[in-house]
Design goal:
By secondary structure, the chain is α/β, with parallel strands linked by helices. It is 31% helix and 24% strand. The chain has six helices and eleven strands. The strands form two sheets. The chain has an eight-stranded mixed beta sheet with strand order 3-2-1-4-5-6-7-11, with helices on one face. Strands 8-9-10 form a three-stranded antiparallel beta sheet. Strand 8 and strand 9 form a beta hairpin. The longest helix is centred in the last third of the chain and has 24 residues. It is globular, with a radius of gyration of 17 Å. It starts with 5 loop residues before the first strand and ends in a 10-residue tail after the last strand. The mean pLDDT is 96. The protein binds 5-O-phosphono-beta-D-ribofuranosylamine (GRF).
Length: 223
């Protein structure tokens, strides 16, 4: 990658994280170009958000492929055809395989709605409440073939209240997703963040643990 990166966002649903990224970009806080939004679902609302922002969209329906590997090959080909440097997963409900990840090694980010390594997989808010944790949140991490297990970059931490419903907790977590994801993408797009042999490196220092931020913290990127 040389110069301002071309960024693709992959999504399957609402795309509120895409919106946060587009808003940060429009405000001048993110270097690079949002060059493509790809969904596996033709009716994902995130595609409308992309179109409204003038970002080219594409649907690649996973059901048309015999297995994950063939789907990933089609996806990787579409990303390469668009000259994509960085791939940002924002509610993309497909597990990626090495077929794609090896072609974009160290260049794929995901946001997961829990404080990883707790609660990998689905239904994280329900599980956090059932476990009785006092803190919950979201994690931005590099994507590796093992699901939700790539090196962590930044976490948005929120308190869990005794009267919380999964919906209330999800809303509190999402508000933090919309703060930390633009920041992590900015770090990657500006070359401050990379995936090294020891894990995520920010400003050439290995992150022993993800950076943790709380709702009251001011980030060096407006929300
Ligand atoms: C977010 O909660 C994110 O953590 C998870 O999928 C959800 C996507 O939400 N990976 P949205 O489509 O960005 O609103």
């Amino acid at each position: 990658m040389s110069g301002a990166p071309r960024i693709a966002v992959l999504l399957s649903g609402s795309g509120s994280n895409l919106q946060a990224l587009l808003d940060a970009h429009a405000a001048g806080h993110l270097p690079g170009t949002f060059a493509q939004v790809v969904s596996n679902c033709a009716d994902a609302y995130g595609l409308e958000r992309a179109a409204a922002a003038g970002v080219p969209t594409q649907t690649i329906d996973h059901r048309l492929y015999p297995d994950r590997e063939h789907f990933d090959a089609a996806l990787a080909a579409a990303l390469e055809a668009a000259g994509i440097d960085l791939v940002v997963l924002a509610g993309f409900m497909r597990v990626l395989t090495p077929v794609l990840l090896e072609r974009f090694a160290g260049r794929v980010l995901n946001i997961h709605p829990s404080l990883l390594p707790d609660f990998r997989g689905l239904h994280t808010h329900e599980r956090a409440l059932a476990a009785g944790v006092q803190e919950h949140g979201c994690t931005v991490h590099f994507v590796t073939p093992e699901l939700d297990a790539g090196p962590g970059i930044i976490q948005g931490v929120v308190p869990v209240h005794s009267e919380d419903t999964p919906e209330a907790l999800a809303q509190r977590v999402q508000a933090q997703e919309h703060r930390v994801y633009p920041l992590a993408v900015r770090w990657l797009a500006s070359g401050r963040l990379r995936l090294g042999d020891q894990g995520a490196e920010l400003d050439s220092r290995v992150l022993e643990a993800p950076v943790r931020v709380h709702p009251e913290d001011t980030l060096d990127l407006p929300a």
